[in-house]
Amino acid sequence: MAMAIPGRRRRLDRGYPFFLIPAAVLFTAVIAVPFAMNIGISLTRWQGVGPMTWVGLKNYQRLFHDSVFWSSFLHNVGLVVAMAVVPTALGLVVAAGLFDFIGKRFGPRTASVLRACIYLPQVMPLAVMGVVWGWILAPGDGVLNSALKDVGLGSLAHDWLGDPNTALYTVMAIMVWIQLGFPVVIFMAGLQRVDPVLHEAASIDGAGWWRRFWHITVPQIRPESYVVLLMCTIAALKAFAPIYVLTRGGPGTSTDIPSYYSYQNFFEKTQVGYGAAIATVLTVLTLIVTTIFIVVQGRHQDEES
Amino acid sequence: MFTQGARRKALAAIAVLATASLAMTACGKSSSSSSSKVLKLWHYESADSAMGVAWNQAIKEFEQSHPGVTVRFEEKTFEQLQKTAPMVLNSSNAPDIMEYNKGNATAGLLAKQGLLTDLTPAVTQHGWDKKITGNLATTSRYSNGVMGSGDWYGIPDYAEYGMVYYNKDMFAKYGVQVPTTFDEFTAAMDKFVKAGVTPLASAGAEYPAQQYLYNLVLSKADQNWVNQYQIAGKGNFHDAAWTYGATTLADWVKKGYIAKDSVSLKATDMGTAFESGKSPMMVSGSWWFGTFESEVKGFSWGTFQWPGNSLVPGSGGNLWVIPKNSKNAQLAEDFIDITLRPDIQALLANKGAVPVAAQTSDITDPKAEELVQNFQKLQSSNGLAYYPDWPTAGFYDSLVSATQDIVNGKDPNSALSSLQSAYSQGLTQ
Amino acid sequence: MARSDAAAARPRRGRGGYAVLVAFVLLAVFMVLPFGIVLLNALKTSSDYSTHGPLALPEAISFDNVRTFWNLVDFTHVLWNSVLISGCVALFAVVLSVLNAYAIGIGRIRGRLWILVAFLVANLLPQEGLVYPLYYLAKQTNLYDTRLAVIIVFTVIQSAFGTYLLSSVLSAFPREILEAARIDGAGKFRLLWQVVVPVSRPTLAVMLTFFFIWTWNEFLIPLVFLVSNQNQTVPVALGVAQGEHIVDVTMQAASGLLGIIPAIVFFLIFQRTLTRGVTVGSVK
Fold first, then answer.
1. Residue B323 DSSP one-character state
2. Which of B77, B83, B275 minimises the CB distance to C242?
3. Can you give the pTM of this predicted structure?
């Protein structure tokens, strides 16, 4: 359809790239140049201050043989599930539930209040979050263990963050709590785009809520789904702050992740050259994931239009 | 819904506001023009702590004795200064005088890069080396970034050392005497365990657990060992001292002296466990003293030295350093001198800190007097062994991790091996 | 849709409806519970906390910690810094995203996938990798220790996400509307301003909210760039409760509470614009 008037399209095309100029300038200054500098730093040995010693690719050699780094990637898979897959899927159901079901039966204000509550964890400063979850999950008399004992499930009471076997799963659960609000808000905004006529037609045809959700809502909300899934995956690959605040990679090394390792080298070990190498490798890996994602998304969207 | 015209006006207003704000932010830089009439001072001690109170007093005395000079004090956060001190000191925004951490990885690093003023002339001029001696001087002097010798780069006003805090009421209740030997110590803990009480409060997610480990290690070490580990970079984690420390710690957890689920607790939780009467003993540093004095109201408490050790964790306190880019180095030195005066030092003591140069006759609080006397004994016998995470930057995290593994029941030898590799790796940087 | 129609069309609530509502309310309570615990501890005194622990109700409601913290860091000023920075970033990042997404999503320029990926690098890069280079550049351009530097950095970082989200949404923009407007003689700029922006309003409102809140909670870059206390933002100031050895927990809770409230207020204000919106149908 867009190809119907080829000459006209070509004329319009020439103007669009100009809209990118402001962003391109800022991006070069703030991202491209510093990233190049970061790569430069990764080829040196440096303590953050003072002279840099050129070491060539030694940092990268050390990194490729660093078992701590690579084994911690496994933990990252858990985080991707907890920060991307679960919140996106759950978030879509919750958003649709709030928008279609609750909003229509109990009024949009109820839905808004519930949405605000669900989004709230996204607003909490991380230091405070670490402390409060420490209180909730405290081994002796934390909220969770006390509640379990009160309900008679005292045998399930556990040292959630202190036992290396449960620490990662506990952190994953907390991450779902933090992340859920983000997809819910985006999806609820996107659901307004869905033509209500489609839903009315389907329910007249006798389709129940779940079928309408699966066949109408999900396809219509696909652009947002891609975005949410990708952004959450990037966040899962990049974010170290929750680990820093909850377990600092412990107990032992059971919740270590590459991005925390990167941060440690930059600021705590002051091995900035090595940290820069880690950051570069992390960026490249995330870039690969992102590119695959976007290409797939682009192809899907081209097929649709 | 807004009309077209109203929306356009609103957006124009926002644009104007934004531009105006931007213009203001650009001009909103901190005034870098400092006449010699302003002393820019930074520290990160809380206002109601002993240091906070004493230094406030010192600022007042400074302003009195230096008419025409105002002290511009900024309360910094510890975390910000830790992470950004090298960057700040390398810019024109450096303060004139600031508090900074002691040790090779912190003050040593800055000294090595030439970011700190050499204080040796001032030291000789004011006679500070008469007040700051022995172990205290070790953390004030750095040569090529390594502490112990060389030029003076920082001056501490206070000191820290490790001890055992104990709950007198609980000791009486369970019929336990204050132990004087290591065997009495373990016997006392056995008694508590039998009565169903966890004797030692600990926290595995932060520094406390590794201090238990270090105390055990120090029981088999001497001053030479400390120097080899801390200064010469020749620590061996599989020697007799470390092996004893790690295996005994694991043993203690098995015996119930330290709760296994303390492994995920933070230092503040340990404090709460002691203050709420959950555990009768807590092994940590003198920085808790002032807090306990003001917060513990439900029981009477005291301190004793780790039984059987001639060495305990401890060192000179955080240093006053004068950045190379300071614009008022002379005034800064005057300020340091004021903080070392007897009245300020006595104030430090009476508020629960360990002063470096106070006359015991000036100390009015009996508990504080005991604290200072215990310190002076350690000082004269060279009993301060610094802290286990000092040898190389970032070693703290490795220690936390290894200690967690030991408390969680993993093989102590593999924990020690991981420490060895982190130690060696850090030292080659 | 006229109100009478809506009322007539509302489905019965029924028992199933109430069951679902209860489930959602339980979810909401679970999400909010930790905040309640923070509130509890913000209103305690330190001795109360140490003697009774974090989960006991306060013996006496005390605003001491809140007051102490407020005065200690000059919170009014810190608050203004955060509002200024977050507000400017939100605004500028939305503008930048709109421009980019227009070119990529509607204009469908060549190589748009690679341009999108390039912009996303802004978001992929671990921030600690940017810190030293940006510090150096800021010093060179005399922007070290200014709020402007922080605004510029975050505008770029947040606009990467905005570009991605908006261009994905705009790719699905109904072509008929664009063609109709073009046939009416609209140039690219008018097309953007009078057709694309109004229809994208829900998405723009979402972006504005997110950018504000994300920038509000940013910690590392403000920590590094904003040296003087007069320039600091809320998350940096919150660190004052965390001493070297001792954490003032009740002050941390109080400061955390003060830090959250403005972000919540902002979210609630913008919530109303999130629900207002123009559906595709009614534009026709």
1. B
2. B77
3. 0.90
